[in-house]
Design a protein that fits this description.
Four copies of one chain form a homotetramer.
Chain A: H1 5-20, H2 27-34, H3 48-69, H4 80-104, H5 109-126, H6 131-144, H7 154-174, H8 181-197
The structure holds a DNA duplex (21 and 21 nucleotides).
Chain lengths: 206, 206, 206, 206
DNA sequence: GATGAATGAGTATTCATTCAT
DNA sequence: TATGAATGAATACTCATTCAT
């Protein structure tokens, strides 16, 4: 079952990107990793930037998007906390993979711009929402059902959930730590619990 | 008042890094921006990586560190919420400046490694703590004073505060948005409020 | 009849090497001399060292090796002296061309190492012998036929023949003298005669 | 007993030259090895070439010259063979040290030229003879005393003695072999014996 | 579609040398 | 004398991309 050349290039590029970094992910290096000639890349992608954008749009994001889009089916079911835990778990795994690569894009503003534009047009085509707004919408729905505190700010809560996971994953990558399922799982559980609970001391209820 | 050549190089490098990105921050470009010859850079820095590490260690982090280190003097004073708001404000401003540059380091693993090592040795020399542990320590102290809920998790709360700010700033930069004091200020206030409050609905206290 | 790019590079490199010296034989200079772009060199050679090694292995040594390898066919034919004269002549011509280039390699130990290794692997592949051992083997064969004195040391004689020619050529190059066929021819004849005769005074045979 | 700065530079330069090669013997590297500032070199030598020429003229050659100049005192004393053996021994030791450095000069024609000119003017100033002519003169004197065969060619014999030693030493250096006193001593003895004896079979003296 | 040679601008870094201190 | 910052040209090599096959 021979993979298509285009797919081999995408896979090779992601591998190089992950292991050697964006700066070392030259078209030649990628071609070598994919086992094809230098020029072949240009039969499948407009240029180097196009290839990297495709990695995100075709390899990294789809799975993540799919999970996120199912959130709306859960409204009113199970417990909010359980849903957040599951979601945070998935988000963390995604960020471990994707965050360092996305961060690297900041090294090449032109690439970043191309990625931004690609995301924007994808959003239009597939009516794709970014993760935080999707989660915020879910939380608002639960809020209407009385399963989330009325004084809570769903937008910020969603931002905090994803933001904390993303930063945590990026820092772990920076420190060279690989994901350790147990510690990471604990982190996620504690994070969700904290978001549910808050810091303010409760007045004793009589 | 002529700045020292070394300082001119540091300033120029930061400017190039911020405006054109790491990949375009070549030694030549930096030298040109600093108004000195190509080779001069190497009279003041061991190599390109050394220069970038110096930008973080000498230009970006010191101010931030100083603010953070003063946290311990605030224990028991004012309100916890007010301190968190002030801190988040400062952190956000810092991340707007520093996060895109730090993110870009992921494009060059060797550079990232050098930065990691430099941070580590600085930590030993100056007994520098990373931001989150510092904040967590403060929260634990307040917890002991009963000004933070006993069931709260200071470590996670600190992680969430900084993580959310960092991710928010990085996304704003990604979207090409420049810091808008009012919207950002609102974000920070809401974030702190959310962290204080939590999502769980409160039982009516009769 | 267009020469291949690789060959043009080899020729150009040898020309530059001979006329301007190893230190001035930069990749750029060679590319310019070959009439191709800077980068083209790297489509045909792994690096600069690889190119120089190729000059010796593909341009300079093969002809010389071929002559040397035919020595064994001469055993017992003609006179030993005539064979040595012919060989010394050829060796001298070779050294005029190759000795200054080989000497220059001592300026760059890494290059020297690469050349040494290349020679070694060639020796295995082509069962190539170095000149002196080849000549020594021939002399030993002639010795067995009684055409070389039994008390002679073929190894040393071979060493002396080539060594003297090599040193002579190198000194001539050092002095800026170009090969002058007549003087050099005389030198070779006298050298061979001397090696045949020896310095010790002969007892009068009566 | 502090060495003069000039001497420290000479020593450092020779060390660098021997261990890292001419190409790596930059003025900066030498200054670092000598433990002085970059610019100091230019207080003692006109330029880089001047320093290298001085190494030969002041450090390497004087001892060797002194030995050679004493040859004339030996005329008629001891045996010719013993004198040649001693001389070859000394020459070989000298070439082990000096030959790779001299060879390297061929990499930089300008340097070679400067060395050539320096040698020439030294020859005038100190009436210095090159080794081979000195030895040839000695041999001619012995020839007149009947201690060297009349049909011998002193010029060529001298050339062969030094040339063979020089080539042998250079090849050993090329192969990365360090001087092994015993093998080298054997080589020298055999070389002298061979030069005395010759290759031609002797007619049985009845 | 696939190839891989050719391009020439671009990279980080080193160089010998100067000169004000 | 000694210093070491400044110079700017030079170094080997890599780059994304093109295009004839």
């Amino acid at each position: 079952m021979m993979a298509t050349t285009r797919q081999r290039l995408l896979d090779a590029a992601e591998r190089v990107l992950r292991t050697k970094g964006l700066a070392a992910a030259s078209t030649r290096e990628i071609a070598r990793e994919a086992g094809c000639a230098d020029g072949t890349l240009y039969n499948h992608f407009r240029d180097r930037a196009d290839l990297f954008v495709a990695i995100f749009l075709e390899k990294l994001l789809p799975d993540y998007w799919e999970v996120l889009s199912k959130l709306s089916y859960r409204i009113g079911e199970g417990t909010v906390q359980a849903h957040l835990e599951e979601l945070a778990q998935i988000a963390l795994a995604f960020y471990y993979k994707a965050a360092p690569m996305r961060a690297a894009l900041f090294a090449e503003p032109e690439l970043l711009q191309r990625y931004r534009e690609a995301l924007k047009s994808q959003a239009q085509i597939r009516q794709q929402e970014r993760p935080a707004p999707l989660l915020a919408a879910y939380l608002r729905a639960e809020q209407r059902l009385g399963r989330v505190a009325v004084q809570a700010n769903p937008t910020i809560a969603a931002e905090a959930l994803f933001g904390t996971c993303a930063s945590y994953a990026l820092r772990q990558c920076f420190l060279g730590e690989s994901p350790t399922s147990e510690a990471d799982r604990q982190f996620v559980l504690e994070l969700v619990r904290s978001l549910m609970e808050g810091l303010s001391p409760r007045e004793p209820s009589i």
